[in-house]
Amino acid sequence: MSEQKVNWFKLSLELHRKYIGKIEVVPKVPVTRLDDFAIWYTPGVAEPCRKIFREGKDLSFDYTCRWNYIAVVSDGTRILGLGDIGAEAGLPVMEGKALLFKYLGGVDAIPLVLATKDPDKFIEVVKILEPSFGGINLEDIASPKCFYILEKLREILEIPVWHDDQQGTALVTLAGLLNALKIVGKKLSEVKIALVGAGAAGLSIARYLIVAGANPKKMIAVDSKGILHPGRPDIDKLKETNPWKYKLAMKTNAEGRTGGIPEALEGADVLIAASRPGPGIIKKEWIRKMASDPVVFTEANPVPEIWPWEAKEAGAKVVATGRSDFPNQINNSLGFPAVFRGALTVRSKKITDGMCIAAAHALARYAEKKGIHEEYIIPTMEETEAFVEEAIAVAEKAMEEGVARKKLSRSELEHEVRELIYRSQKYMKLALEHGLIEPY
Ligand code: NAD
User: Fold this and answer.
1) Residue 138 CA, ligand 1 centroid: distance in Å
2) Which of 169, 341, 360, 404 could be cross-linked to 399 through a Cys-Cys bond (beta carbons 3.0 to 4.6 Å apart)?
3) Residue 387 lies inside a defined structural domain of this protein
4) CA of residue 327 relative to chain centroid, distance
5) Mutate which of 232, 276, 297, 298 for ligand 1 pocket (most atoms within 8 A of beta carbon)
6) Residue 70 shares a structural domain with residue 147
7) Distance 106 CA to ligand 1 centre (A)
8) In which domain, by residue range, is 232 found?
9) Do residues 104 and 421 lie in contact, with contact meaning Cβ atoms separated by under 8 Å?
10) What is the pLDDT of residues 92-104, one digit of tens each?
11) The whole model's pTM is what?
12) Residue 193: enclosing H or E segment and its boundaries?
């Protein structure tokens, strides 16, 4: 396995050097004669400018590419598992994200890395950028400032703001869990859930599970210092330094359990771990102490907290990880392209919790229709129709909740979403056939 990883790294470096960038801007209007420029640029372009000026800023969604443009913004402070490596060093990841946005969701995404670590400056810059974009995807920002930045931007912007490390992970985890619980015949509102890791992913997973119907009193969260509970010595400090974790400590763990991961796992129906790369973070003997038919999601990348076969040997009924080489991959890429596709198609002002939960249910439903079993609880990234259904569910929820600027019927929505999602695949085929993109 490590052999293969070294090869991926080497190949990736070589190919990044060869192609020098993973996305480019291409025209989407016909240009066949000189006069065309008088339409797309001066003098003709003055008329859409005057119209937006006279009739309102929202018309920029109808007369420019703003409606389908988002910014992928990072300060480089927590790039993948590499830590605070800076804005420039984080740029390859933001570009990669932009590629996935386009290829999987038909969303035009611009990578933007900011040379500041100050959260208030970051917020100010994004606010100033708002007129250029239909949405903002925050990426790889250190915790806990990522919570503050997301909350503030969601409050002050009139376009959707999303932090993929939080909401994306939570959405896909919820989708997988909904189906895993169907397999073991248990209800979300009744299960005992142990959450290992209370960072960007863990805190957001906890929040969305509760919004979707999990009982916080039956949840026990653990971080690197042990189980969260109101009597923990650092609890008062947490109130200041990480109010999000503090709030979770206050509303979970009604039994008042103390200790670490083994104590949290005793009798639990579900384990969701998003802590640090394993193996060995979760031990087989701890899984044996869980309730019957336990569900085990170990999401750390690149190596899960326990290997899936070890979890199975210890009695886990359904196992999911973050990896594509094992069954049941919990991966953000199943979430963000379709969520933005849906939100942008109806020019949504927000991505609400309701829209995220609708996306999770749509993903779960798609897999269920195909036939779920222990090794298939969630669609894979190759199942394009799952993205279509998810995007439609998000757009419908946005219209229902009154945050959409545009109303579309079910059939209009389906047509637009499908066209945009498949457009990139068609483009790729053509570009490869015509030598505009060189194969490697
Ligand atoms: P983070 O640094 O914000 O949070 C990590 C949390 O884990 C912290 O609360 C920390 O105290 C806790 N922790 C660390 N070691 C622990 C231990 N031994 N026992 C208990 N708790 C421990 O990081 P994050 O962004 O939340 O990501 C956490 C992990 O989840 C990473 O490995 C990341 O790759 C993975 N992740 C996977 C996906 C996915 O889609 N599969 C998505 C997001 C994150």
Assistant:
1) 17
2) 404
3) yes
4) 19
5) 276
6) yes
7) 30
8) 167-321
9) yes
10) 999 999 999 999 9
11) 0.95
12) strand 193-196
The pLDDT tens digits for 323-369 are: 989 999 999 999 999 999 999 999 999 999 999 999 999 999 999 99
Ligand 1 mean position, distance from CA 429 (Å): 38
Give CA–CA dist 255/425, Å, rounded: 52
Residue 100 domain-assigned?
yes
Banded pLDDT at 301 (limits 50, 70, 90): confident
Query: Which residue lies with its CA nearest to atom 42 of ligand 1?
Result: 169
CA of 142, closest atom in ligand 1: 3
- Do residues 317 and 341 touch, judged by C-beta distance below 8 A? no
Domains held by the chain: number: 3
In this structure, which residue's CA is closest to atom 25 in ligand 1? 200
d(CA 303, CA 427): 35
Kindly state whether residues 173 and 316 are assigned to the same domain: yes
Structure tokens at 159: 């376009």
Assign residue 48 the CATH number of its domain. Answer: 3.40.50.10380
- 1 occurs within a structural domain: no
Nearest CA to ligand 1 atom 32: 300
Residues enclosing ligand 1, CB less than 6 A?
A: 81, 143, 165, 169, 196-202, 222-224, 261, 274-277, 281, 299-301, 322, 330-332
Residue 144 C-alpha to ligand 1 middle, in angstroms?
12
Q: Distance between CA 28 and CA 434 in Å, rounded?
A: 18
Residues marked active site are found at: 41, 97
First to last CA, the chain: 23
The CATH number linked to 407 is 3.40.50.720
Six-digit token string for 14? 């070589």
Query: How far, in Å, from the CA of 383 to the mean position of ligand 1?
Result: 27
Ligand 1 atom closest to the CA of 226, numbered from 1: 20
Phi, psi of 143 (to 5 degrees): -95, 145
